[in-house]
Structure formats: C-alpha cells, structure tokens
Amino acid sequence: MLDESESQVAAITSGEHTEHNIVIVPVGCGSIAQAVTQHWKREGGSEAATVVAVEPMAAACLKASLEAGKMTSVTTGDSIMNGMNCGTLSKNAWPILESGVDLSVVVGELESHQAVEELGTLGIGAGPCGAATLAALRHLCQLRQLENGSEAKQLDENSVAILYCTEGPREYGIPSVPS
Questions:
Q1: With the C-alpha atoms ordered 40, 46, 162, 125, is the resulting torsion angle positive or negative?
Q2: CB-count exposure of residue 2 (10 Å: 0-12, 13-18, 19+)
C-alpha cells in the first residue's frame, strides 16, 4: 500500500519531487500511522511528505501526547469513528509518531459523516474512520498553511494529498446537525 501510494505520487508529479506532498493518516492506537510515518519519513525516500495525523474529538490521544511531549492517555467518548476510538497509543508507535508527525488534526462526528457522503458521491465506499482523512484535508484547506517546526508549508495547486482510507462502508448512527 505504501509503495503503491508513493508510485502514484511519482506518476502524478511526473517523478518530480514536490515539497507540498501531504500524507493524511487516521490514528487509533497508532499502528497504521506508525507504518505510514516511517515510510514517508524514511531516510533516502524518493518523496518527502508532511505527515498529518487525524483523530476523532472523542479520542485524541496522539494530539494530547504531542502537546504534552510524552505519551498521554485520554478518556474516550462515543464516536462513529469507533476504529479510531482509542484512548492510549501503542508504546511502539509513540516514538515514531512523536518524531515524524508534522501536524495533528481532530475532526468531529458530523465532519466525518459528511466526508463519507461526499466520497460516496464519487463512487468511493468509505466508513467514518476512512473518511476522516478527507475531513482533515478540509481543515487543512481552511488553514491553508501547515506549521512544520520552524517553517510553514503552503497548501496550493502544486500540493499532492494522499488520504489513507482505513475503513470500507458500514452502518453507523448518523450524527445530528447541531442546532
């Protein structure tokens, strides 16, 4: 999956390196995010990328850990993104995520559901965990700028976003629109 996505980026960019590559990966306990981060941040990799982690509001243990500078557990709540509803990161994943994730984004239930619907209109079957990456991309497009250490990377027409969808379509309780 990782080599394939890198090959697809190379095909899209005609093999030219772009500093605007953004990889968005869902985080639960962190295992998939660890693999994605290791792949895109490896030394000698053909394409460097900004790694963005996405978590549900109900279980943002990576964001809490990054902000605390140490692995931190959180109390979880209900979430339609139940595959990401983890309150503690994997001890193996934490060091890789701490050093490799450039930005942590938290998305809400309704945002994830809307992303499921949008992907469905495009013929892409995704569940809330998989669609959370599209919801995160929407956040990034609103921010238009990613803080990456001391330098900021701009999202623009040259940006290539890789969204890892980790869940196919399934039934879940549709969140209500806040009034």
A1: negative
A2: middle
**3-state SS, residue 21:** strand
Question: Spelled out in words, what is the top-level CATH class assigned to the domain 2-163?
Answer: alpha beta
Give residue for tokens 């450039």. 102
What's the pLDDT score for residue 150?
Answer: 35
Chain segment 76-108, per-residue pLDDT in tens? 999 999 999 999 999 999 999 999 999 999 999
Does 148 score more than 50 pLDDT? no
Full-model pTM: 0.88
What residue has token string 């060091």? 95
- Residue 135, H or E segment: helix 128-143
Q: What is the dihedral of CA 5, 8, 12, 15, to 10 degrees?
A: 100
CB-based contact 132:48 (threshold 8 Å): no
Which of 20, 54, 13, 43 lies closest to 151 in space, CA to CA? 20
- Over residues 125-140, the pLDDT tens digits come to 999 999 999 999 998 8
Q: 86 near 76, Cβ under 8 Å?
A: yes
State how far the Cα of 84 lies from the Cα of 137, in Å rounded to an integer.
Answer: 17
* Per-residue CA distances from 136 to 1, 3, 55, 83 (Å): 20, 23, 9, 16
